[in-house]
């Protein structure tokens, strides 16, 4: 692996030198590929276009990110920003590379979570668009356009992660391939209309499964906090280390989103039948609400309090999109019709 890692570092250096003037572009792309974007950005947009596909986005994002966490704990992947210093192979010829605010993630690097979740979630979205175009236009060329976009998005997200020194190229490839397989598989089992008990069991299953794996690995002498200590040691700026990039943040985010999805369907099965204009208003209000909910600062100490509040935050988000905002808009439009 030493050769693979070394070539990955030189590739990152070459990419930074050739495209540093597009720094803001790469940072934007890596932000759009963040697993959180599936819950905060893609979910409300897709849900108000097609309810089943919107639910599928949350389902696929949560399960694929949880599996990514499990893979990372078991594969112990390095990250370029700390491996450059830890390997001590570049003392005579150090690479001319920079770190960025999005670089210093604290979890292991293999496979890439950005690539894996993006690959899974975007497959759900583009396959739905392709099916719609095929049913309306019956054109193979037009149907192929969403899949071309899919490939371009994966390439852009992968290059952005290499550019900021968050991942090696082979971690991008394995994450993208695994995410594609998960997207195809999980898209066939979307829990639309499932009972609240199903989501409670799913949430508890993910939580207890991850905790059991964590305990088992720690019990046999494997220190799963090794990546956090390396990230803190080699990150250029300490304030770039964020609690929401830790493995347990991913776990609480995924469990919270699934529970929130179940509660939303429990409170209002089937949702509200809204015309296009009220849906557009719902999207605007939901996006505004999710933006401010996500911006609310959370106390990082003690960690248990942070993870609990983080769990509650992502439990609320599906309910905001599927119940609270549509219910409010439905109430307003119903009153106008009566008047």
TrEMBL record:
GO molecular function: glucose-6-phosphatase activity
Residues that bind substrate: 79, 161
Active site per the UniProt annotation: 114 (proton donor), 167 (nucleophile)
Enzyme class, first EC level, given as a word: hydrolase
Pathway where it operates: Carbohydrate biosynthesis; gluconeogenesis
GO biological process entries: gluconeogenesis; glucose 6-phosphate metabolic process
One Pfam short name: PAP2
Keyword Repeat: no
UniProt domain Phosphatidic acid phosphatase type 2/haloperoxidase: residue ranges: 53-187
Residues annotated as transmembrane: 26-49, 56-76, 115-133, 145-164, 170-186, 198-217, 305-329
Enzyme Commission no: 3.1.3.9
Compartments in which it is found: Endoplasmic reticulum membrane
Keywords per UniProt: Endoplasmic reticulum, Gluconeogenesis, Hydrolase, Membrane, Transmembrane, Transmembrane helix
GO annotation, cellular component aspect: endoplasmic reticulum membrane
Topology with respect to the bilayer: Multi-pass membrane protein
InterPro entries: Glucose-6-phosphatase, PAP2/HPO, PAP2/HPO_sf
Family: Belongs to the glucose-6-phosphatase family.
Name by which UniProt lists this protein: Glucose-6-phosphatase
């Amino acid at each position: 692996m030493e050769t693979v890692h070394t070539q990955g570092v030189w590739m990152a250096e070459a990419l930074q030198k050739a495209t540093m003037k597009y720094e803001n572009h790469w940072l934007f792309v890596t932000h759009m590929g963040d697993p959180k974007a599936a819950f905060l950005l893609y979910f409300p947009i897709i849900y108000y276009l097609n309810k089943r596909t919107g639910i599928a986005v949350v389902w696929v994002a949560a399960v694929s990110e949880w599996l990514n966490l499990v893979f990372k704990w078991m594969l112990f992947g390095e990250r370029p920003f700390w491996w450059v210093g830890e390997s001590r192979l570049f003392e005579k010829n150090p690479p001319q590379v920079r770190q960025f605010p999005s670089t210093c993630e604290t979890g292991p690097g293999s496979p890439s979570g950005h690539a894996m979740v993006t690959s899974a979630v975007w497959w759900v979205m583009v396959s739905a668009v392709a099916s719609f175009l095929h049913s309306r236009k019956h054109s193979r060329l037009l149907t192929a356009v969403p899949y071309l976009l899919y490939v371009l998005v994966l390439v852009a997200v992968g290059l952005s992660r290499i550019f900021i020194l968050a991942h090696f190229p082979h971690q991008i490839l394995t994450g993208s391939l695994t995410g594609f397989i998960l997207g195809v598989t999980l898209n066939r089992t979307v829990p639309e209309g499932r009972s609240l008990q199903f989501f409670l069991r799913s949430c508890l299953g993910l939580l207890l499964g991850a905790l059991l794996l964590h305990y088992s690995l720690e019990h046999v002498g494997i220190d799963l906090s090794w990546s956090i200590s390396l990230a803190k040691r080699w990150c250029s700026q300490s304030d770039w280390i964020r609690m929401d990039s830790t493995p347990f943040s991913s776990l609480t985010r995924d469990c919270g989103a699934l529970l929130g999805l179940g509660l939303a369907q429990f409170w209002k099965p089937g949702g509200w039948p809204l015309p296009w204009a009220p849906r557009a208003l719902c999207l605007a209000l939901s996006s505004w609400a999710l933006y401010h909910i996500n911006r609310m600062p959370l106390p990082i100490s003690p960690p248990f309090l942070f993870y609990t509040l983080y769990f509650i935050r992502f439990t609320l988000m599906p309910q905001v999109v599927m119940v609270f905002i549509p219910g409010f808009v439905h109430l307003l439009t119903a009153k106008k019709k009566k008047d």
